[in-house]
DNA sequence: TAATATATGCTCAACGAGAGTATATATCAT
DNA sequence: ATGATATATACTCTCGTTGAGCATATATTA
């Protein structure tokens, strides 16, 4: 089943029946850049929200509308844009009950001095999902904070079978007990934590939260966001982690020329895990994704590294499906 | 770039600026079943439209709303549901200029006697995309109808470089000249044909269509649909063809028990190409996706085949990412 | 009874992915 | 100057997967 519709991911509620004319739509953007080896997202509202704005039908397509809107608001040139998901089941906390359809997009760019009326700022995406960064092995907070909370959640199930199912699901998603870590399951992990009420967003606006839940929450790492913006961010990260494996979109995040190690660090930053250096280079070069510029970079510390540039021609040569980047264990 | 935003996929037009309150949303469903080895979609309006209806916010989530709506309208139990794409750039032919956001979904089910007020009928999806069926090799109509049209389109480009780019793109997508056929590029192929005005939908409502274009159109195979429904169907087929390779959704289309050849025929129907029988069986069995029922089926003609059933447990055991189905050359 | 169609199982070669090792060339601390 | 260290670059090996062909078993049908 589609993780975005996992049955218990949010409390059931009956919304008012709206006539089609009463619906509002807005765009939400997950804008990603990778700066000095860290994946970052553009945020507004004291870093608690993703950039968003009302949907206007003044463009040829949704996508070109988003592109124009982002470039007007932030002056960022978007290298790659892709629709993520359309949400319509938001909890509009505090609002008048007006329901909003949110159409979310992923956009790749290069970090620039933030610009915009809404105090736009770049922030590392692992600030929101610290458990997703496995570049130096599983982060300590997984044992310290997540595993106890998930264990408690599993034990709280009604019967033995349900407890076992919960434990198995947690182990599968977080790589406990023999299970290997799968970096693509960002959204499923977030939704499990949400379901287990280990995420502040899950109990927001719910006054009947128990004391024990509050205690667990206070230990939960990761910066919260408004509404379901963190879920949208999780969707974007998951999509990007899957995409870089078979589609050369990483280059939209790189400067014009770069060393192979810089490229590798960028992939590692996105995937949240290390990759095997020799294999990475082999795959990049044998696919002819890059070409040498003839120059070298010396500010890398050791031996000067050759500078490369992306061969944009491959986008025309090959079907937009046949390229691979290795994301495997170190 | 996302194929759904390819720059020339439809004529640019400036739509009226709508206030957020004036937006209507509806759901469009691509409902798929596979009956006796043929992939089929549910259609309405004399088989020229996909089932669709107004979006109502009376449900917990968009997805559960769609599920309820489909099951109410058609009495089909949906085994698997996934959001496809949200379109907002439709040409609302003949309507009052009211703009509609269409949220499209893919749903898998088993074919049942059609039910519903809108003369709902099942129809083979290759009636709409005859060039997508390569189970017996490339269909003749590719040489006969598509290749000449695409050749003309390529030659009509402004300069030599553009002509070459067009030829290359057509060859890449349709498998001409050394290029191999990639069954996943359904949407890209449709959009290329649209761009080349080889699809009736592309010139609809445009009175200035040239005579030569009309001639080409009359030769274009494939049943048209209203609005951009054929594009949505292409999106669904592409998504499903990609999905079956790493996610065990085929079983949602199968009866409770089935033979391995039936399963293979189902995969072949969806992928539009044949698969190697011994390899198919090997992969299915070594992944423990199925278990024997102990019974055999004799109505297959030759030696009785063992009957299998899907092991639903794998959905809980494995991360929703680690299963493979072979879709390769025969 | 032979022909035929399907079911089922086995083998082999080619390729790619993962992992380890070795060498070259720079910077930096002493 | 020199050794330590960090990076860059190249090569090798093994294993599992994948594509492809062949062989055998068991039914129906002419």
TrEMBL record, chains A, B:
Pfam families per record: WHD_NrtR
What top-level branch of life does the organism fall under?
Bacteria
Every NrtR DNA-binding winged helix domain range: 250-310
Among InterPro entries, the record links this protein to: NMN_biosyn, NUDIX_hydrolase-like_dom_sf, WH-like_DNA-bd_sf, WH_DNA-bd_sf, WHD_NrtR
Protein name, as recorded: NrtR DNA-binding winged helix domain-containing protein
Which organism was this protein described from? Tardiphaga robiniae
